[in-house]
What does this fold into?
Amino acid sequence: MPLLDVRDLKTHFKTDDGIVRAVDGVSFTVEKGKTLAIVGESGSGKSVTCLTIMGLNARANTITSGEALFNDRDLLKLPSDELRKVRGQEISMIFQDPMTSLNPVHSIGKQLREAVQLHASVGKQPANRRAVEMLKAVGIPRAEQRLGDYPHQFSGGMRQRVMIAMALINNPDLLIADEPTTALDVTTQAQILKLMTQLQRDFGSAIVLITHDLGVVAETADDVLVMYAAQPVEQGGYQDIFYRPHHPYTWGLLNSLPRLVTEGTDLKPIPGTPPSLLRPPSGCRFHVRCGYTMDVCPKVEPTLEAVPGQAGHSVACHLEESVKQHEASNLLSQLKTGAKA
Amino acid sequence: MFRYVIRRVLWAIVLMLAVTLITYVMFFAIPVDAARLVAGKSATPAEVKIVAHRLYLDRPIYAQYGHFLYNLVVNHSLGYSYNDRQSVNTTVFAAAPVTASLVFGGALLWMVIAIPVGVLSALRPRSALDRTAMVGVLTGISAHPVWLGYMASFLIGYKLGWLPIQGYCSFSGQNGGAFCGGPADWFTHMVLPWSVFAILYAAFYVRMIRGNVMETMNEDYVRTARAKGAPESLVMRRHVLRNAMLPVVTMLGMDIAIALGGSVLIEVVFGLPGLGAVAVQSVEQFDLPKVMGVVVFAAAIVVIFNLLVDILYAWIDPRIRLA
It folds into this structure.
């Protein structure tokens, strides 16, 4: 049984202009101790999906439906006080910008202690000991002395380490990381990713990793969910996504990665911009930006269907299976050789 | 922290010097012969000269200023009034408690109103409470204190007869043979002035607190606190309010200090013999020592309050301590 089983999740926001369908029918599962990467452009609904599961965007103008089964409970139907107890203890979250995610007026010791004491009635001393343990685990030197320091006395990378320490302090089953490395410079990114995978091994937590960086996905993910305009378009093991991608949007994402080997070639972005979620395009939402559009695409909405012969791999696209395979292998050989079409 | 405090104190002294110097120079720019005013209409030129000599008015300005500073620092004296020959210290220290009663009582009242209304408005934007509060705020900001004051004393004091219309009663009851005194009289005489004072400031503070709280609630660290599993009440207290109150503390310190220097309008409307009233009277009489007395006292209060706010701020916000 999976640790987290999300079924047909929808999050709609009522606004003055109409209903924004920020998440529109997303299903996925996360297995114990595994990493699921949710990939997509900005505004594709990755973050809202996770915030909804955590109950963190429960405002009056939010409509949610679907199920999010976690340890035999549906998180979406849990009373808010029960859900509060799940947050920080069974599911933790780390965010994109470590510079603003820690409270500037409290010492990090106090903030770490708070995370412990919110879920267990322990005194200040044991909570402090736990905090020091965690700071050591995430590689903060002189952990005992630094407990009294404030967030502004740490660098960005160090603050993200503190955030990770705080998220893992209660040994959660699931860690949701919302673009944890986006605000960091490249060398720090690598360190943080390494730290996360290492801690995942030590603590056995499952991870949902939200990112738009396929490099990050390649380094960490077991499974991948590709989202476009609030809907899943392709889903599978990381090998399916990297070696047998079946959706034109996934091809676009792979193709838009900068390459060091090919000198002098331009970046290849996906043309156009993500559509408005207030009035999404008809049929397949990607058809306006897709290079393979057929007559059927604007008319019929494709459903996520299993790729023949590849267990766990599914895709929502009208293209013929043979075309998909052909294009995928073409793209891969290009990426490998660095040649330009 | 210690070095920070020392630096702030040194700055405060420089500021005091600057304020007194500027007041002194400004006073001498007014084309009035203070010695003649003091000596009286029928005084001969010789008599005026004697008066001028006794009041140090025949020395250059810098010597007069030096004398003033010397007196202040060494004798702790603000000098003697040109007009009634009374010690300015006595006048200022008699007026200060009146203004202090008005300002601190008013500040307490306006914060008691502004914090809950501001926070609740922020928590439920566009609700009935929020809209009502905003109408109240607009009224409070738009109303003139003199109008508000006279309306309050007319309606509540005169028509309804619930509270005294005018005047001040000392808290301790020692009022030099006056008609009233003691905490109860002091309180009833202050209720109207406090209320008018509080309405004006509460309006600003409701707006400011509402805005700050709404802004802080969108901060990433507030989301972090929720993600940690903190209940909403704790999120508000520990993570939102403390950050949202930072600018409010600064404003409060400055507003109280400025008001202590003379809430002229309210003191005049309610016949309170406070610093503002003394200042108005002594300017009309070209009574330099009294003017200087009020200015020095008010400046000292402003500077001391700024100092306290700075230190308090550094205590609340760890980022300041290093700067």
Summary: The interface with chain A takes residues 219-221, 223-231, 234, 238-239, 242-243, 246, 316-319, 322 of chain B (CB under 8 Å). DSSP finds 14 helices and no strands in chain B. Chain B has a mean pLDDT of 82. The two ends of chain B are 10 Å apart (CA to CA).
